[in-house]
Inverse folding.
């Protein structure tokens, strides 16, 4: 059993509004809000890479944890938009943090990769020590901002998030998790030839069935009812999907933390960015927490965390 200890995040400075995207994609700005719940998103600077974004999120997380990079036993970096396939950004992030022998693993799974990283960290932390899990995406370089690419261009933004999973202390202990893959449906969501390919309605249909089943099964395994859940951190893919999952699970919609309006869909970074903002508001966990994601593969799953008395220090808040 390992513990959620700290989170961190990094968002690029450039804000891209719906008005800007609407002009490029020949759509109405109000339509973007209606189909996604997104009002704006962030775009990386030309000199940014997924590794440089991840390194800045890592530094924020380590500051929250009051740890040095040398205290980390392993890095896990999830990205579906890395500039290079092999090695991926994990090695570059390790180098940026001054680490020369710490193992660094890449998970090239868009949207759900950070959840996979958290599950791996839970298993590995007792042996390796604190594990730093990062999700970093520059999805703005994987979309086509034209009328032909509007269905993906309106959704995606850039950013990075981080989580520290500790073997002995934190604000919540990881009580259980579930991971699933359905490769038979992988053609509805994948990244190839530098672009993300997505059949949006099919993805929402799959996610709105698969996620509730997984969440309810995980709760049943731990003898918890939906009413017992105090907080849900869900991949910020689409506001309509979050609403569907809330209804299907009978978990109070108000318990779902949502920041998609400001950042859009940041793929693998989204649940960790959301976790960082949520934890700044809730440094001490008072009720069960669910973390859940759905993404390319198709890969999906959930993680259950329960309150732990030995809470970590209050998060360091970033300037607005």
């Amino acid at each position: 059993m390992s513990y959620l200890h700290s989170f961190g995040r990094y968002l690029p400075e450039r804000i891209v509004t719906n008005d800007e995207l609407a002009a490029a994609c020949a759509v109405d700005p109000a339509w973007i809000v209606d189909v996604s719940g997104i009002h704006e998103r962030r775009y990386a600077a030309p000199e940014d890479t997924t590794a440089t974004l991840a390194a800045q999120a890592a530094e924020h997380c380590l500051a929250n944890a009051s740890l040095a990079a040398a205290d980390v036993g392993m890095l896990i970096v999830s990205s579906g938009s890395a500039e290079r396939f092999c090695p991926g950004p994990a090695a570059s992030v390790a180098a940026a943090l001054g680490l020369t022998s710490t193992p660094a693993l890449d998970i090239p799974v868009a949207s759900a990769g950070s959840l996979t990283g958290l599950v791996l960290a839970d298993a590995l932390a007792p042996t390796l020590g604190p594990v730093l899990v990062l999700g970093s995406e520059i999805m703005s370089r994987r979309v086509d901002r034209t009328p032909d690419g509007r269905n993906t261009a309106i959704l995606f933004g850039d950013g990075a998030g981080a989580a520290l999973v500790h073997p002995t202390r934190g604000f919540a202990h990881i009580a259980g998790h579930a991971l699933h893959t359905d490769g038979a449906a992988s053609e509805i969501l994948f990244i190839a030839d530098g672009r993300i390919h997505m059949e949006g309605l099919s993805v929402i249909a799959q996610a709105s069935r698969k996620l509730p089943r997984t969440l309810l099964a995980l709760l049943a395994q731990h003898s918890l009812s939906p009413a017992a859940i105090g907080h849900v951190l869900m991949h910020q893919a689409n506001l309509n999907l979050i609403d569907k999952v809330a209804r299907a699970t009978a978990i109070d919609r108000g318990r779902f933390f949502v920041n998609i309006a400001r950042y859009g869909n940041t793929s693998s970074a989204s649940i960790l960015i959301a976790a960082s903002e949520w934890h700044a508001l809730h440094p001490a966990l008072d009720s069960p927490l669910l973390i859940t994601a759905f993404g390319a593969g198709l890969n999906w799953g959930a993680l259950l965390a329960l309150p732990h008395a030995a809470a970590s220090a209050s998060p360091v808040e970033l300037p607005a």
